[in-house]
Amino acid sequence: MANILDVATPVEAKKYIAVMVHDEQYGIDINFIDNIVRMQRITRIPKSQNFFPGVINLRGEIIPVMSLRKKFGFDNDEYTPKTRILILKPEPQASIGLLVDEVKEVVSLTDEDIDHVVASEEKSTYITGVGKHAKGLVSILNVASVLAEKEGDK
Amino acid sequence: MDVSQYLEVFIEEAKEHLQALNEHLLILEKEPENENTINEIFRAAHSLKGMAGTMGYKRMQKLTHDMENVFQEIRSGKMKVRSQLTDVLFEGLDALQEYVDNIVNTQDEGTNDNQPLIDALARELNIGLNGDGAEAEAPAPKQEEAAAAPAAAPAEAASAQASAPAVQLEVSSGSVSYAEHEKAAIIEAASQGISALEISVDLQETCLLKAARAYLVFKAVEEVGEIIKSIPDAQMIEDEKFDFNFTVVILTKAEIDDVKNRVLNVSEVKDCHITKVGFTEVEAEAPAEDKSKEEKKDAAAPAGAKAAAPAAQAAKPNAQQPAKKAVVNRSVRVDIEKLDDLMNLVSELIIAKNGLTSISLDDFGKKEKRAVFNEQIEYLERITTNIHQSVMKVRMVPIESVVNRFPRMIRDLSKKLNKPMELYMSGEETELDRTVIDEIGDPLMHILRNSADHGLESAEERIRLGKPETGSITLNAYQEGNSVVIECSDDGGGINTEKVRRKAIEKGTITEEQAEQMTEKDFIDLLFRPSFSTADTISDVSGRGVGLDVVKSKIESLSGTVECKSILGVGTTFTIRLPLTLAIIQALMVVIGQEKYAIPLGSIDTIEDIPVSDIKRVEKNEVVNLRGNVIPLVRMADILDVPGERPERDNITMVVVAKGDKKAGLIVDELIGQLEIVIKSIGKYINNSKIISGATVLGDGEIALILDANSLV
Prior knowledge:
Distance between the termini of chain B: 53 Å
Largest sheet of chain B: 6 strands, mixed
CATH architecture of the largest domain in chain B: 2-Layer Sandwich
Structural class of chain A: mainly beta
Strand order of the largest sheet of chain B: 16-20-21-19-18-17
CATH class of chain A: Mainly Beta
Number of strands of chain B: 24
Number of domains of chain B: 5
Helix content of chain A: under 10%
CATH superfamily of chain A: CheA-289, Domain 4
Number of helices of chain A: 3
Structural class of chain B: alpha+beta
Mean pLDDT of chain B: 75
Low-confidence stretches of chain B: 132-173, 282-327, 533-545
Shape of chain B: flat
Distance between the termini of chain A: 25 Å
CATH topology of the largest domain in chain B: Heat Shock Protein 90
Radius of gyration of chain A: 15 Å
Oligomer: heterodimer
Largest sheet of chain A: 6 strands, mixed
Strand content of chain B: 15-25%
Strand order of the largest sheet of chain A: 8-1-2-11-10-9
């Protein structure tokens, strides 16, 4: 989905949901997001990748939930009243939830506001760039690569 | 209205007719004099031809027509059924099947004319009618006919057969252009004194319901004749896609004036012009017509004349629909009774709902309210259970739809392998879920072929061994609890485990030491291993194992099991066990640690409460001796990495699950009870171990994972 950024004309601002993971701010293209729900009971799936805490029941649909904290190699999840699950629907019939520490706001960024970074850190593959807005920096999440990488650190 | 709607019906029915033809032809082969059978065959072929024509599948129609001619002669007793003839007819059925398959895939019948087959049919007809004497002459006319065929082929087969083969039809009047089969129908009709009329109808410009008027006109002329064509086609007329004029072509014996009056009697018809379709017969360059051909022509004429009516019917408007949609939906034919049941239940459901509503409105005391409420809940529960069963029933199809093609397959194999054999089937009415039915055909066919090809000995060998010369293969299906069992057995040589053993060691699949410890059954299980599937290695030796791994994986993907038992020299039996349905199952809910899991009831053998002191250790594995059976234990909490303490107990609860003959005791912490659960997928993102086959949502919204007991045994 990197090309979403490429095709955007400078004047057209795209909207991102700014979320907190650990103490960093990440932006997720609002087009991917189907729903945002509060933290709820997660059922553990034995033998799954460690960044999948399990599945939740959202109105009868069973949705796997991925912890962005663990996916990015931070320490264990802390569930607080601010914890949210972003429900993404990349394909029909294949929803997935992303566990984040906090959902802050919606930010509008134009292509000019975003610096495409190249970093050597492992998690940087999940980021297409860093956007600047009034309240600081937001790392733009590459949703496709976050979801695509299945094996990860199992 | 959509073309694909007709298409689905056509495909369903064509398959049915083909199946009927196959079945009855098999009977006919054995009982050539069976009149009922030949009538059945004739009827099926006739319907099939009509349907193919209606849908505009000309090649298919032509081939069916020629086959029908043969059946006609057999029916009228002019021809005898000979094995050569049945061979050709079976080939014809295969070709028809091919057309149908093409239609399923592409909505088009394909471009194969099957000319050689049509020639062969004509030849058989010829031989049959001229008696045995002509058989010797057969090869000669055959060649000439083959030469003549291309010349006649472009013209319609029906005309080639029924009237003079080399006559070209030139329609001379009107602006209507005719397709080949329509010309043929007109020609045939003309030979019986039936004329074709072109009726051009003008409707009044004030007419509001043009389609309805047109329909009435159709109705009116249908009373006196057969409509073979309309411009625009019927579909377009139905959709009112025409101005105030349309043309109908009919075949009728009635006078022009009579027809005209009938049409004008329909209100809002402004005018009507009728012209007779004339045609000139153009002799194509005369092909060498030998005596036998003349005879054939004469003989075929009555058949053709009879066939004219259905052919005309077949050519009814809306014939050549431009079929563009490529995908044919999967459909289930549902017994109307099942739907009625469902409907009844739904009305009960509504009543139950109303009952509940009234409780909340009524002025009952608290206590009474609760009592009435409980009563209603129980009622509701009963209805939902019944609805579930009914819906499942709707999805169920008898296994017959899969197995009914096997007798034909065995017959062909018998001829091909030159081994006399007979297939005995029972329990075809056993029902399975549609999704399972669709998948089970190939594995079953594989096993049957295996039995026929490698299982049964040759006739000489069988005589030498004192067995009946004709080998028998039995296919038996029955329901057992929540699963359906299909047994396929042969009375052939059985599996020579000694040879399997040798081959397995040779190939390095197992070591000598391993082989020492293996039982007969273990060796047979080797055949299901993928490494054993490679041809010629083992098929030369034991004749088994080719592709059996595919069979196994297919059946396991349907959550079924396959087992093989064999006695050397006596025969082999494959037993396939399949769950009745895949979507909703009965399960035992258990607690492990703090988590809830569901174990499908179908795989559970017994539930045992055993003292810890009974647990023995065999090579690091825990086992218990349960009434003489040594059962390995599986500590589920460890397997599933359940967090938390494992409290020491005096007694453990063990759920014994079985997969075929193998058993395992799953140790769980607590039993909750039996529950009907809906299986849901946990999605593709999570790396799923084989232990979890899915998840289900419980009544309180909690999720329970479903354990795949097969993977634990």
